[in-house]
Amino acid sequence: MVAYRNVAVLPFVAAAVALAAPVEEPTEFAPEDVIADTASRQTLSAPGPGTGGHDGRFFVQSTDDLYRLELRAEAQFRFYSVFDAEDDTPSAGDAEDITTGFEHTRNRIDFRARLYGDQLRIRLRGDFARNGGRFRLVDNYFSYELGGGWSVQAGQYKIAYDREFSKIRGTSGLAVERSLTSTIFRVNRSQGVQIKYDAGDWRAFGTVSDGRAAANTAFTNAAEADIALTGRFELRIGDAGWRQFGDATSFQGADTGVLLGLGGHWQQDGRDLGPVRATGTTNLFMYTADVSYEGDGWNAMAVFYGRTIDPSGEGERETLTDLAFVMQGGLFVSEQTELFARYEHIFPDSDRENSDDFPGFIVGANWYMIPGSHAVKVTGQVMWYPEAQAGSSSVVNAPNSNVGLLPDDDDNQVAIVGQIQLLF
């Protein structure tokens, strides 16, 4: 990879800023105070608020509320039935007209720690893979509040770029999964350093990282970009707070508000989507805009995505630009039942092979066992892809088990999906 001296020091500058933030003078303790404090932390035997329990999350914390450890877990169990996925290519063999089965899509354990009140937070989250059950690292980072609305975050995490993936949890969406478009156009997880500023009604994120989809990689890995910069800006209008916009739904009784978002990403090399045998540097530009409107028991969201792949070098192909959009909305018809629908459309660059447009439709319903909570949720939905996946295969890859899309060289693939979700 190419070395960039000025960029390479950015993480250390961010760390220096964090260490330079003003902090209160440490309190001096007498020896007997230290002994008493140590004993209380070792036994946690004294009853009272803050020693441990469940307040929406399982936790253990010190009686002075300065140290807290939380344990969370999530599980999603799904049933898929896919119809008319006809792949007649020689490698496909005898494709079945109906493919059905069960899977554990998400099985995650999440540890979160808080130190010195809310000033320093640490997160460690892992996942058991749906194929084989292998345990792997998902997120591992710390965040430090600098004061005045500023904070720094470092480690491995979802890069703040788009709303669908980086700002809506996988357990808090409308449908069982984020859109097919999101799986194609997201920056995904990576390793890096993020600076955030929160002004109350608006906030901004800036990140230097290893680039698109570069989680769990060593710094010498070719999948890492030589340089990658990402930014996101969000503006909140109305009474709905940031926490309400942390999911894609809006329960009955919720406040009304609008969220506007813009995101941009640039990287050189790494997983840049350029030619496999590129002889020069490939620049990847990604850009997105979104608007979300939430009210008392209803929600709507529209997202635009774009990306430009610019390979250089002798004999390389020309620049490619792919575009897409997603529109979705939900409505509660009772305190526990929500109906939803989604329409998405992907426009591969016309200079690609297999560059047909690819639309998709979803309709479904959610049932929340606990009103106002995603803790126990049952979802049923029907997906329809009217065009053949093979005609758009330069951008739309299959199989994509997240969204239930299988290889198909014929029109009108349909999937019925059911899911039960448990969070604790």
Please, could you describe this protein's structure?
This protein is mainly beta. It is 8% helix and 47% strand. It contains four helices and 18 strands. It has a 16-stranded antiparallel β-barrel with strand order 3-4-5-6-7-8-9-10-11-12-13-14-15-16-17-18. A hairpin with a 2-residue loop joins strand 6 (135-147) and strand 7. The chain starts with a helix and ends with a strand.
Condensed summary:
The protein has 424 residues and is mostly beta strands.
Radius of gyration: 23 Å
Strand tally is: 18
Discrete helix count: 4
Overall pLDDT score: 87
Beta-strand percentage range: over 45%
Judged by helices, strands and strand pairing, the structural class is mainly beta
Summarize the main sheet.
16 strands, antiparallel, barrel
How would you sum up the global shape? globular
Low-confidence stretches: 1-29, 34-48, 90-94
Helix content: under 10%
Instruction: Spell out the helices and strands N to C.
Output: HHHEEEEEEEHEEEEEEEEEEE
How do the strands of the widest beta sheet line up side by side? 3-4-5-6-7-8-9-10-11-12-13-14-15-16-17-18
CA(first)-CA(last) distance: 43 Å
